[in-house]
Each structure stands twice: as structure tokens, then as C-alpha cells.
User: Fold these one by one.
Assistant:
Number 1:
Amino acid sequence: MNSRFVPVADVEPGMLPNTPTAAIVTASYAPDFERCRLLCETIDRHVSGAAHHYILVEHRDVALFRQLQNNRRTIVDERDLLPRWLHAFDDPLSLFRRRIWLSLKTMPLRGWHVQQLRRIAIAARASEDVLIFCDSDVAFLRPFDCGAFRRNGKVRLFRRDGVLAGSGHEEHRIWSRNAGAALGIDEAVVSTHDYISTLIAWRRETVTAMCAEIEKIHGRNWVQVIGSARKFSECMIYGRYVDSVLGGAGHFHGSEEFCRVHWTGEALSDDEFRSFVAAMAPEQVAIGMQSFIGTDIGRIRRLIGLGA
């Protein structure tokens, strides 16, 4: 196991220490390597207030991503995070183009499921107080201090209030219900809040307490519990734990999104890309070009001034 993973004594529940530390966490995989390289370059150029950057990858991708490792950036093998009974295979049903994670203790899981599990699991291995999650298809364009996620000893929890009460959010409602089931929350206690965004923060101690609570309720490993349903969101689980179980302790809420994301549709032309960047809100410091849309990484580099 990586030597950076050291035991750290917990502080008073709900509050950060007087001088809290932060780490950026990115879950990635081989097809996103060049996007992740760009993320690393823009973090190094624009981001302050983070003691370390963890990149979480499948075992077979470790050697590739080690090119990005340095004294402030560690590549973490998922085998050091997740139970050994969860095994990755090439999926014959996709003509071996995709990966699938199988075990006798969970549903069959895809890469996006396992990336979420890695993000939860890193809390038990990292030493920093605040974990800041940033996808590998993000690039920082403006200076950003990670202290924006802290206030008066508390951590900023991204929350958009009441949006799940409206139409068009059925999948989010399923994720919220499944989060409640994992956390042992009465089915009658329904949340209408959305906790999902890019570039958000969690309190490390709260994540480890959440996992312990899940295991206490169900008498099983937390990976088994969460992985027993294929429709889940790590952000929903954490958000509902903080608000519905802890009553918001140790956190303050914020709905502003620090990253402007192009979620769906076609790849942007040069002019469309420039317009997208120009439309960034004052608080937004980064952009996200969802990798499955296919925006050329060389174009992104050129348009943000980092060369082809």
C-alpha cells in the first residue's frame, strides 16, 4: 500500500481541525488519460490550497497513469481501496470493449459504478481532512483556492434544494431512494435535494463514519450494500447521510457550481467552445467537457492556451 496512506487521529466530530488540509481526488481510466494529463497541468497552474492529488485507477491502468505521479500526486491502485473479491473482466457482451466488475456479493458493476466506490474508499486511506472531487475531463481556467470549501470549521456541501420535486429527475429520485435504503433511512423520509455536481468537497472523517454506519445497519461490507443496487450515486449517499442522518453537522450548504460542464450533445466547434467559456459564471473556475461527447483534447488544449 502506498506510503502516503497513514493513520490520522480523528478530531472532534463535525468540526475541522484548526489548520485543515485538503486533497483533490480524481477517478479515471485509460481512455481518459490525456484528459487527465490536461487536468493535472491546469491544477498545477491554477489551483492552490491542496496538499495532494490522488488519481484512482484500475490495476491494469496504474503503469500508464504513473507518468503523472510526482511528490504531490499519487496514482492509487483500486486493489488498495476495494475488497479483493470484486474482480474486473473484459465484458464479452460488449465484444470485450468494456469492463465489468463481478463478485458473488454485488450486482455486476460497470466502470462508472466502481469509480464511485473508489471515491468513497479513498477516505479510509488518505490523510487529508477535506477531499475535493474533480473528474478527469475537467480543466481549470482560472485561479482557485480550495479554501472555498471551508467556512468556520465546516465543509461546503453542494446542494440544490427541492429540484427532485419537479419533473424530469426520475433517475436522480431513484438514486436518492437507494441512498436512503443504504443508510437505513425510513422510506417515508424522502429528500428532494440534489447533491450531484462536478468539483465538490466531502469531509474525510464524515465519509469513514458513513461507511461504518452502513456496515453497522446491514451487517455487511459497505461495498456489498451499495453495490447490491446498480442505480446509485455516491454524491446522493453522502449528501443524504450528512443531511438526513447527521442533521447537517460539520457542513454548510452551497448551490453555486464551480465548474461549467457540457453534459450532452455534440462536440463543440471552436466558436461554440469560446462562447461556452465566455458564459462561465463569476464563481466558475473550471470547465468540463464530458469525454463521451468526443471533443478533441488537442482542440481543448489549443483553445485554452496550452498548445496542441
Number 2:
Amino acid sequence: MTKKGDLEAIERTPSHLQQGSAKNITNDAVFGEITADGPNYRSLGWIATAILMSKSMIGLGVLSIPAAFDVLGIIPGVLCLLAIGSLTSISAYVVGTFKMNHSEVYAIDDVGYKLFGVVGREFFGAAFIVYWTFVVGSGMLSVSIALNAISTHGACTAVFVVVAFAATFLVCSIRTLGRISFIAWAGLASILASILLVTIAVGVQDRPAAAPSSGPWKSDYKLFGGPKFLDAASAISSLVFAYAGTTTFFAIAAEMREPKHYAKSLTVCQILVNSTYVSIGIVVYYFCGSYVASPALGSAGPLLKKVAYGIGILGVFVSAVLLSHVTAKYIFVRLLRGTRHLTSNSPQHWLVWLSCTFGVTVVAYIIASAIPVFNSLVSLIGAFFGTLMSFQPFGMMWLYDNWKTDKSKRSIKWYLMCTWSFFVIVAGTFLMISGTWGSVLTIISDYSATGGSAAWSCADNSNSV
């Protein structure tokens, strides 16, 4: 049986275990008995962990940052981005310490159980599934956008979404993150190369694609934007969304061979993510101004748009694969936790696992294709669930482990972390309410504009980007 609190680092299965020796069975606090007869869920090295963390954050969402800067202005935009990046960096560090203190924690629902009991577990579990299933659907649509851009709308968009669904299901059904990490490397390189191409292109071209084609032109970037409250809240929510992958770090940490290296992986991830976000946001917005596209891959003109999407399509696809895998794995662990089928190769194991991956991807496909205002709905889900899972729980987690520290042991660091914890809870709640309000108004506007008639559309969805 699983030993609660077992922090033993699980190395790759030795050769003598592969020959059938039963005496080297290892117990994991989440997965139970791990043997050579089943998948080794604890096979991630620290470098692969850093890549998976980075890829869970860096997607086409980074290319909405320049548009957010257009609303806020460069200086407030950079300050907001750095503030959110700092908060999420500390939050992600708390994920690692909380996991080390409570090794039986696998996902945000286990945190909810510790904080609020059964109600907390079910609420956060449902929020996790709903949120990431919508994001997977968004990823499938992003793949269809890329295919439309590359092929100049060579087929009905609904067909491209089906292609994205089928490919996502097949690849995300690989059972362990250790075996799936190789595509994360390729996906991260793909999206970074695509972003770099666009960044260089807008810097060397005379003007962005959306700018007037004749006459003198100069970028109309703003140092300070002066937006209305709801516009600012929506822009800040898009910045929060770019960092919302933090909630997947629990599942990634659970499959590390050496959990003690979590902080090292996180440091690499945050340096890469924050430097990418800040540099891309500033450079692209500086050269494009109010004519920046969102996502920004279309800012450099039709030809470079094709090239950029051609390079970046793997990165977009990998995002859908990774997030659908993590979501399906969460459901899978919830269903089989505490049974021998979780880590065996039994028929029940495979039936449940493939049912989970198929279920997540097919539901993501349906809601992505059937909901006429899907993009706005993703913004609503992100503003509510994404913010809720990216801020408040992490402040509560630190307080849960440290609030009762003896008064004689309360250092300056303790008081600073208490201040940070309360600030994260309050700031997250404010952003959740304001972002949700703005998203609801946008959905009403979008639904009125489309008349609710865009389900399973064949229209080219890459024209606006």
C-alpha cells in the first residue's frame, strides 16, 4: 500500500527488476507500487521538468502580450507583467515546497481537500477539468488557425479542427510525462523560433502589415495607455492567462525522479518564460504600435505569417497535447488511485486511460466547434477559473503550512511571506471578479454580432490574425 508522506526519489527501473524481481518494488505516495511490470511515472529528470514547465506556459498566448501593452501602454504593461511574473514565480515555488511537505498531493484538488475538506477537493477538481478542457479546445482551434494560415484556407476549418483533435488524442495517450517530454523540447523550440522570426521581421520591415500601405508611417506606441477600467482589467487578465500554466506544475512535479531538484527546474523555467514575455512584448509593440495583431504572428505580413505559423504549428500542437495529457492524467489518477491498476498494464488500466484521453479531447473538440462565442468563453473561463487556480490557493497553501509557526521562530522572512500570501489572495480575487465581469460583457457583444450561428464553421479563422 502507499506510504503517505513517502519522499523517496524513484530512479529508473534497474535491469534486475526488469527481469522480474519483486523485492525492489517502490512505493510512491501518489501512484502506489511502481514496478517494472507497469509504467514508471517517476522518470522525469530536472531538465525535462524545466522544459515541460516552460512549454505549459509558453504558447501562442505570449503573442497576446503586445496587444495588452497597446491597451495599458509600455511602462504600465511591463510593470504589470513583471508583477504577475513575480507573483506566479513565488507561487510556483510554493507548489514545490507544498509538494515536499505533502507528497500525497497530486493536483490542485488535493490542495483543496487540505484547505477546505471534501467540498474544496470537488470544487477545485471540477475547476481544473473545466478550465484545462477549454484551454485544450483553444489549442485545437489554434492548430486549425495555423493550418488555415499555411494552406491559405485549403480546407473547411471544421475539417482542420477534426485533424487537430485526432492528432492530439493519439499523442496525448502516451502514458507518462517522461516519454512525452521529447515532444515538449521540439514544441518549445518551434514556438520560440516562430516568435523570434516575427520579432525580427517587425523590427526590420518598414511598417506592420495592418498599417497604411502608402505614405509616411511611424509607430504610434504609447508609454502610458490610459484605458477604461474594464479594458485594463481585460488586458491584465490576458497577462494572467499567459502564466496560468502554474497549476500543471503539481502533476509535473509528481513525476520527477528527484523532487529535490524542483527549485532548479523552476528557476530555469521562470528565467526563460519571463525574459521571453518581456522582450517579445516590448519589441513587437514598439515597432507595431496599435497595428499589432493578436496573436502577433500576423503582424509581419501574409508571407511571413505563413512562415511563422509553419514553424510554430508544432509548438501550438504540443500545447494541446501536454494540457490534454495532464487533464486526462488527473481524471485517471482520481479513478484508479489506491488500486493495482494505476501502475499495471492490465486491461482495466488501458481501458480507463484511453477513455480519459479520448473523453478530454472529444469534449474539448465539441465545445471548441459547437460554441459560437468560444474564444470569448475561453476568456471567461480563464478569468474566473484560471485566476482562481493561479493566485488564491498558493497564498493559502503557504499559510496552511506556516501560519502556526511558534512566535519565537517568526523571522522577517515569515512576515514577508505572510504579507505576500494575503496580497496574492486579495489581488487574485480582485482580478478574478473584474476579469470575469469584462469577459461576460464581451461574450454578450460577440454573441449579438454573430447571431449565434458560427458553430462548426467552415470560415477561415486565420483572417483576423
Number 3:
Amino acid sequence: MSDSESLKTRSLVLPGALRATLPAARWEEVTVGESGARVLRSSRFMLKIQPKRIHGTLFAEKERLRWLASRIPVPRVVAYHQESGTEYLATERLRGIDMSHPDAALHARRNTELLARALRELHALPVRDCPFDMSLRVMLAEARERVGLGLVDEADFDGERAGHRARDVLREVVRTRPDREDLVLTHGDACLPNVIVAGEFVAGFVDVGRAGIADRHADLALAVRSLRRNYGEEFALLFLDTYGRALVDEDKLQFYQLLDELF
């Protein structure tokens, strides 16, 4: 199934604190991606709205966007607001289209190579001053909590795990946990809808709420899966070749795709 989007115009009533920041605009619903937030866009801005959560908050994404801004291309934060148990995050809209868009698929080879190089550059950045720990210790603790609270959408599991229970997937995750992590600065959800391309350049990364220090395969696994779904198997293989096969562990690719089922 393609990650490509469909749009429809929706009425929108903003809290007073945001009306002063965001001008009146024609907002369109964006259904691409799987963040769980309501996402809208105008000609200049993107707006995310979601209930306040234990994990995966828009506050956490806002903090990451501000930290990443001097390091990689990401949208500028315009406003953040929380009211009555709901979070709002407004950012500037990057120019371009996401890599899952049908028009982007016309340039699948170019985009695949761009994605591989962009992630290689991201993973090469220093991690010593990164305040966001997304290592397995953190992610497994959150996965256990999500399973315990019944927050995992079992109906959304990949085909090979259709019909499985979240607790069984968690058991398999714990059993197959890698012995060591190759820690780098990661995007955290490196799927095609979260990479904006403008011609021959990556204009920026979006949906960075899970960015932080983690094994590079946390990004590679989701990129491979997204490329396979949107462009086809040959481009998943091209991605790994362009990124550098010497850095790729096939077992870790499978592990991080499995772990992602719980998020």
C-alpha cells in the first residue's frame, strides 16, 4: 500500500493563543504518514494536533526540531501550545513534496540515492551533545509500557505478523535483541513520507519526534520497508548499496522492523 496522501478541506478553530501567531488560512488535511496526530497544512505552515500522551508528545518533537535546526534541514518551529489535554505544534512548511508522493515516485532511483546519502550524512554527525536517548534501553521500556497499557494497534501489524498479539511481538523483540548497538544520531522514523524532496535535493526531514541517539538500523530498517512498499524491492536493495553494505546488518534490519510494530 502506498504512503501517498489525499487531501480535503476542513474547518479549523484554533485556540486564541495560536490565532495571534497563525494567520487566517485555508487549511487542508494531510493523511500521509502514520504519526497518529491530525496534520493540516496551509500555503505557509504545517499544524499538528493531538491529545496529550505519555510518550510521543508534540512537546518532545518541538524540542528536537529546535535542537536539530542548526544541524540538519528541518522545519522552523512557529508555535507550540497545550490546552485542555490537547497539544498543538505549528511549523513552517518546507517547499517540495514528500518522497512517497506519486510525483516523487517518477524519480524513484534518484530519490532512493538521495535518501541513502542524507541518512549517511545524518548518521555521521557527532552525538556527544545530543540530549535525546533513543537507545534500546529506552525504546524497550516504552514498548513494554505501551503493550501493558494496550496502546499497540495490533490490526496495523505487517502482513507476516497479521493476527499476532502485541505481547507475543514483545516477547520476540526481547528474545532477538542485538548484543550491541551501533549508536549514531538517527531520525527515528525514516520513512518516505518524512523526507521532503525538492528536485535533486533533500529539502528537509519532518516528523522528528523520535529523533535521537540510537542504532543506525533503527533508520535503515524503516527506510528499507518504506522503499519496498512505495517503490519496490529493487530500490530497497539500491538504498542499502548506496548507503554502504559494509555498515548493514541484515538481522538488525529485521529486528528494528519488528520493534517498530509496537509503536
